[in-house]
Specification:
By secondary structure, the chain is of the alpha/beta class. Among the domains are: 81 residues, Winged helix-like DNA-binding domain superfamily/Winged helix DNA-binding domain (Arc Repressor Mutant, subunit A, Orthogonal Bundle); 105 residues, D-Maltodextrin-Binding Protein, domain 2. 42% of the residues lie in helices and 24% in strands. The protein contains ten helices and eleven strands. Strands 3, 4, 5, 6, 9, 10 and 11 form a seven-stranded mixed beta sheet that branches. The protein has a two-stranded antiparallel ribbon with strand order 1-2. A hairpin with a 2-residue loop joins strand 1 and strand 2. It is globular.
């Protein structure tokens, strides 16, 4: 079922094989076994890719529910082992990749027997993993509005307007937000939490947002800003090295930086394994201080 779900997600046997770290024939064999067991096709070819048949769509819905129940079963059995060992799936939005590895190292020192499976993507995809119970815990910058979740803040998330150090706005102090209307911005793609926060901020100030270019990663955006392509709105935890080295500058805008929070989130009905519960408690109790001292 896990293989089937990955093929459905990728729309390709070869891509699924890469994600699962197995050979393409091994994936194809498992799909054939499923189809032979039910006596009907679950996939159909579409050009060079494949897509689910109607039966496949219905099977996927139930398979994801079953996989979620298997996770709950694993969590139940893990309680008998305490904190000695275990595994859980952690999904984080891409902006969090700048501090989550450090936190995982610190957590690993305290709980060396707990294995963490990490997935990173934009907010939209991370939320889909959460909704399908494919992630035990999620780290994101804003709690979801349309899912029955438990979300607890564990650290601050300051966001600000950054520019190349020679940008004319860098020399000005206490700028009104409206001063940004005449400048172009390099922004994250739709589906990104940072992009959504930026659009809300500009809408609240009644200021048009002029997009110079959309880019799918913070690293690419940072390079574009330093090259002078435009301004950007980023979590300051992602640009600490560039600001400290003088390769990038923070623009002094009234009311900025905007301070949000990082949240650890899981479905309300989710039964957390001892390992996942330990990591959640670790974030709430220790992550904020660790992140502040590290950055």
């Amino acid at each position: 079922m896990h293989t089937f779900a990955e093929v459905a997600r990728q729309g390709s046997v070869s891509k699924a094989a890469q994600k699962l770290f197995v050979t393409q024939p091994a994936v194809s064999m498992q799909l054939r076994q499923l189809e032979e067991a039910f006596g009907l096709p679950l996939f159909e070819p579409v050009g060079r890719n494949i897509r689910l048949t109607q039966a496949g769509e219905e099977f996927l819905t139930q398979a994801l529910k079953a996989l979620g129940e298997f996770k709950n079963l694993e969590a139940l059995m893990a309680e008998h082992l305490g904190m000695r060992r275990g595994r859980f799936d952690l999904a984080v939005v891409s902006t969090a990749k700048y501090f989550v590895p450090m936190l995982l190292v610190r957590f690993g020192r305290q709980f060396p027997g707990i294995e963490v499976q990490l997935k990173i993507d934009n907010r939209e995809n991370v939320l889909s993993w959460l909704a399908r119970n494919e992630a035990d815990l999620v780290v994101m910058g804003r709690a979801p509005d349309d899912l029955p979740c438990e979300a607890v803040p564990f650290a601050t998330n300051p966001l600000g307007i950054v520019a190349a150090p020679n940008h004319p706005l860098v020399r000005r102090k206490q700028l009104a937000f409206s001063a940004l209307r005449d400048h172009r911005f390099v922004v994250r793609e739709p589906g990104s939490g940072t992009r959504a926060a930026m659009e809300r901020l500009f809408a609240e100030h009644g200021t048009p947002l002029h997009v110079a270019m959309e880019m799918p990663s913070n690293e690419t955006i940072k390079q574009a800003v330093m090259a002078g392509m435009g301004l950007s709105f980023l979590s300051l935890r992602t640009v600490r090295h560039e600001l400290a080295s003088g390769h990038m500058a923070l623009i002094d805008v009234e009311g900025m930086p905007q301070v949000g929070h990082w949240y650890v989130t899981h479905l309300q009905h989710k039964k957390l394994s001892p390992g996942a519960r330990a990591f959640k408690e670790f974030l709430i109790e220790q992550a904020g201080g660790l992140m502040d001292s590290w950055s």
